[in-house]
Design a protein that fits this description.
The complex is a heterodimer of chains A (about 120) and B (about 110).
Chain A: E1 4-5, E2 10-14, E3 19-21, E4 24-25, E5 32-39, E6 46-52, E7 60-61, E8 64-69, E9 74-79, E10 88-96, E11 104-106, E12 110-115
Parallel strand pairs in A: 2-12
Antiparallel strand pairs in A: 1-4, 3-9, 5-6, 5-10, 7-8, 8-9, 10-11, 10-12
Chain B: E1 4-7, E2 10-13, E3 19-25, E4 31-37, E5 43-51, E6 54-57, E7 64-66, E8 76-78, E9 87-94, E10 104-105, E11 109-113
Parallel strand pairs in B: 2-11
Antiparallel strand pairs in B: 1-3, 3-8, 4-5, 4-9, 5-6, 7-8, 9-10, 9-11
The chains are: A mainly beta (about 120), B mainly beta (about 110).
Amino acid sequence: AQKITQTQPGMFVQEKEAVTLDCTYDTSDPSYGLFWYKQPSSGEMIFLIYQGSYDQQNATEGRYSLNFQKARKSANLVISASQLGDSAMYFCAMREGSGGSEKLVFGKGTKLTVNP
Amino acid sequence: NAGVTQTPKFQVLKTGQSMTLQCAQDMNHEYMSWYRQDPGMGLRLIHYSVGAGITDQGEVPNGYNVSRSTTEDFPLRLLSAAPSQTSVYFCASSRPGEGTDTQYFGPGTRLTVL
């Protein structure tokens, strides 16, 4: 069974609008971390945002926020006020355990295209 | 800080050849990892290390060897390259206890095996 599922192979959004990228996860470990990475066409992996399983509040980093719904095992990325430079692949990843384990499991990604 | 560096950026090998992908970090991170990314896939963990002298296998370790003699370096060796190892390889490093334990990725090495 997949541990990280990203059901949207591609998404389109108009510039300046908000967009939500879906991510669901599967784990029985009570302690875990969820990450979102951006991969532009140049290929590098850019860390965007992190949510710990015990964090009480949803994580936010500038225009990025993570909609963490623990009971539904979802960790959706919300990008507000989309910009042309947001066009990229976006990967959701999970680390099981409370640090000390560097095994990240990635989803297959969502390709986001921002239209002018 | 240069962060995580990888060499080479591109490499073409013939089936059966061996080579080493280099990875170095200057952030004094204890943890280092190697991932591969195939088309239409996310990254998959090959090997990882929690400190000098300590390595372990990830999800897809077959055909690869690693060693960690220093904190800074974590080379990945392909013993006998196969076309199935054509991929983009990413090295990453992190230090536990830095809040998010975020892994910092290198720029990647694009490997083609003919």
